[in-house]
Amino acid sequence: MSPHIMVFDSGIGGTTVLKHIQQYIPDGRYSYFMDNAYLPYGKLSQQTIIQRLTGLLIFIETQQLHVDVLVIACNTASTSALSALRELTTIPIVGVVPAIKPAALLSKSQHVALLATPATVKSSYTQQLISQYGQAVTVHLYASVELVTLAEQTYQSKKIIQDKLVAELDSLVIDNRVDVVVLGCTHFPILAKGLNEYFNSAVLLLDSGVAIAKRVCAILTEHNTGWSNKLDANCKGEKKPLHYYATASIYIDEQPVELVTLIDPTQNEKS
Ligand code: DGL
User: Fold this and answer.
1) Which residue segments constitute the domains of the chain, with CATH numbers given?
2) Annotated catalytic, 235?
């Protein structure tokens, strides 16, 4: 039986993580859940994010989706809500958090940039990551909501609006000693081509996609799901269908998206 892996994000950003997991586990059954009614998460409070994700857990349970691994493919949600969520469910949860540790090891100039949402930048989880793994380097913090919007537009139009990207990056005034940029938001790899162009390919862009795919493999093995790190004999290499859920109407690669509502009493932060 192939494992059911659910990948969650506020929007389309988590597809950059999903892509890596699919490469490692091509015989998995996938669902992708986006809470796009509340996008961008980067502007929400920790309390609202925890409530939305609690709603997701209730949805998984009431719909009896039998999820083997839940991947919170959103740095903002992971840094805000991971520990609270793990208290509420027995489903193994893999979170995506900024790749500070490898960045610190890879930087030669000892200057690393973290590019993330405002909520991720100011979260105590991120501060803890920096004090634990970023001691030997200076971590410069840059928060942007606009880059999330640009990534959503780029995903739909398949074209990066370079002048808007340049304007936003210019406004962040990134320290010119930086040689590694941590893409601390799963939306940002969608902009990788434009980012490389902006930095003249002089910096290394780091995201957590491959590390997460490896972690999901390890969890499936540890949790005895019957999955082993080789292709299912019946798989024949074809990709299993991917089921999309969204909380606001959207088209994804012309695939049908199931519109769902999460139980959430908090309405006051929705604009
Ligand atoms: N993709 C999400 C992340 O990794 C953030 C996007 C948002 O602000 O909703 O942080």
Assistant:
1) 4-96+209-270 (3.40.50.1860), 100-206 (3.40.50.1860)
2) no
Q: Does residue 82 contact residue 95 with C-beta atoms inside 8 Å?
A: yes
Pocket test for ligand 1, best of 32, 48, 74 (most atoms within 8 A of CB): 74
Whether residue 40 is preceded by a cis peptide bond, meaning omega within 30 degrees of 0, is: yes
Which is the catalytic residue, given 185, 204, 216, 262? Answer: 185
pTM for this model (two decimals):
0.93
| Whether residue 217 lies in the annotated active site | no
Residue ranges around ligand 1 (CB below 6 Å): 9-11, 13, 39-42, 74-76, 117, 120, 148, 185-187
Atom of ligand 1 nearest to the CA of 40: 9
Contact (CB, 8 A) for 133 and 101: yes
Specify the 3-state DSSP secondary structure of 240. Answer: coil
**pLDDT tens digits, 128-141:** 999 999 999 999 99
Backbone angles phi, psi at 24, to 5 degrees: -80, -30
Q: DSSP character for 185?
A: S
Structure tokens, 107:
């930087």
21 C-alpha to ligand 1 centroid (Å): 18
Cβ-proximal residues to 205 (8 Å cutoff; 6+ apart), any chain: 181, 183, 189, 192, 195, 196, 199
Closest CA to 154 of 61, 16, 3, 4: 16
From the candidates 74, 129, 182, 183, which is the catalytic residue? 74
Contact indicator for 36, 262 with CB cutoff of 8 Å: no
Q: Relative to the CA of 76, which ligand 1 atom is closest?
A: 10
**Tens of pLDDT, residues 1-40:** 789 999 999 999 999 999 999 999 999 999 999 999 999 9
